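retry 2 of 3: previous attempt timed out while embedding iron/sulfur cluster. Reduced batch size to 1 and resubmitted. Inputs unchanged:
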Amino acid sequence: MEGLAYYIETFGCQMNEQDSLRAGERLKGAGCREVVSPAEADILIVNTCSIRRKAEEKAYSLLGRFRALKRRRPELTIVVAGCVAQQEGERLLDRIPHVDVVCGPHHVSEIGRLVKRSREKRQRFAMVSQMTNSVEDLECPGIPARNGLKAYVTIMEGCNNFCSYCVVPFVRGRERSRPCRSLLEEARHLLERGVKEVTLLGQNVNAYRAPDRMGFGFPDLLAALSGLEGLRRLRFTTSHPKDLSAELIECFGSLPPLCEHIHLPLQSGSDSVLEAMNRGYTRSVYLEKISALRDRVPNVAVTSDMIVGFAGEGLEDFEDTLAAIRHVRFDSIYSFVFSRRPGTRAARLEETVPEGEKLRRLHVLQAVQREISLEKNKALEGETFEVLVEGSSRNGRQWMGRTRTNKIVNFSGPEGLTGRFLPVTVREGCRNSLRGDFAAEHANPEDRGRCLSA
Ligand code: SF4
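retry 2 succeeded.
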């Protein structure tokens, strides 16, 4: 394996991003190096997502494009990892003859060994064991994200909720939480390496229950992590509304590193659709929780996921969703049209909303949300926020950072600001980001000198 080049393409959520990082670390440990172009690689890994049809189609289309590379270089090893791998198993080997290894999410940490076996023995195989209760495969030494400032820590995996549209319980299994001792160790290690912001990950992150300490739940974990020296920002995703307890709400505003942002999927504003989705809450329960959260931290940013065109969603249901969006005034929303996923309960429901109508509803919803996002960002003009500078902006001409509420801020400044916490005053609120100026009057003397002398 020494000297081999690998390329990873990742689809889906941050859990998959983190799995890809873990796979990369294993390959580096085996002497491989990462490349940024598939054409330069000896090992191609496609880490797939099956939560929506579109993500799955994109992964298949990429794999289709890799066929030509394999034809030119038969020694190339092509690996399909992630949720599609888990779902399809050996069928993928029949369906895509140029794929060598199919690797389910529970085997990501073995990727080096699997690639080696495939190359040495010239074998094609699938490694997609059945669900496990063990959490060993989630253990991680602590891998900072690319710029070294932020890191994801997977604290649990799987889900027991069985929302009727979702494949997660089938491909990632039931909830399994990592011991709090190893999580604290991982976080300490990351902080020693200079990480400033940690995001806790789990499909149902706030259902965390430490297996090594009786009664130690998610709020306890947040409190323990908040006490670690050097941790400036703590985030988590994705939360389920039913597990947003009063105790968890109390953590906001009382644990200094815990950022004022929550991603809390609502999915629909209609009670009958929520019931058909098996979400386990009603619209009013969701709204009460948001209201309790805002009572606690008025400036908390709330983002959400929404599905339109679910089987049985009538126009009135859709109007309820729009009403809920207008009521909550989310900071932003990830919105999707409903797509049936094989093996789920919703796959057996009759599709009642034509594709064209689903798209129409999606566009209406997005237009409503765009207006709200813009209004909310405009309302921030003139305010000053602490921004963690992550690197250069998309156009490369400015700096890009994030507020504690997870809003992107672009602003001008001299060289060498990456990794600094700077005060920035919002000059203009745009739909998806903020434009600002370094606020010298709020800066510490070192940053004031650095920014003003440039
Ligand atoms: S809570 Fe529902 S949508 Fe989220 S992972 Fe679990 S089953 Fe899927």
